[in-house]
């Protein structure tokens, strides 16, 4: 495999920044939607409360996934700044461009990612 060109790295950088904006906006909306559910039965029925609690749990989980995505994006942007972007964090081999096109924040090559999933 050949090293990534500066132009390709800058394209991935732009995609990472755009993804960061999208996730940040989503997290802000989720924070607003995850307000504490009122447990007073006089204001809502038991099933409605259960639905609200389930919805709140789903929003919380989604928010956590988005926050993890932000951490991965931040890490990828740091690797770009330190000229380590595109290299597997485990084996130090180049990550394929096709893999980076799917997820520019990816930090492991396909081989190392497969090995990690088996553990």
Low-confidence stretches: none
Q: Total number of helical segments?
A: 4
Which structural category do the helix and sheet elements fall into? Answer: mainly alpha
Strand content: under 5%
Largest sheet: none
Entry summary:
The chain is mainly α and 119 residues long.
Q: What does it look like?
A:
It is a single chain. The chain is mainly alpha-helical and 119 residues long. The protein has a domain at 6-85. The chain is 66% helix and 0% strand. The two termini are 27 Å apart. The mean pLDDT is 88.
Note the topology.
Layout: H1 6-33, H2 46-81, H3 97-102, H4 110-118
Which labels suit this protein?
elongated, single chain, 119 residues, 4 helices
């Amino acid at each position: 495999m050949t090293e990534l060109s500066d132009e390709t790295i800058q394209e991935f950088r732009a995609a990472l920044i755009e993804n960061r904006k999208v996730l940040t906006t989503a997290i802000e909306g989720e924070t607003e939607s995850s307000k504490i559910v009122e447990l007073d039965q006089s204001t809502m029925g038991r099933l409605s409360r259960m639905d609200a609690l389930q919805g709140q749990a789903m929003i919380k989980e989604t928010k956590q996934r988005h926050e993890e995505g932000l951490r991965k994006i931040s890490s990828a942007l740091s690797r770009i700044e330190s000229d380590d972007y595109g290299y597997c964090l485990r084996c130090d081999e180049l990550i394929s461009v096709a893999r980076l096109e799917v997820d520019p924040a990816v930090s492991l090559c396909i081989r190392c990612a497969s090995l990690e999933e088996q553990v």
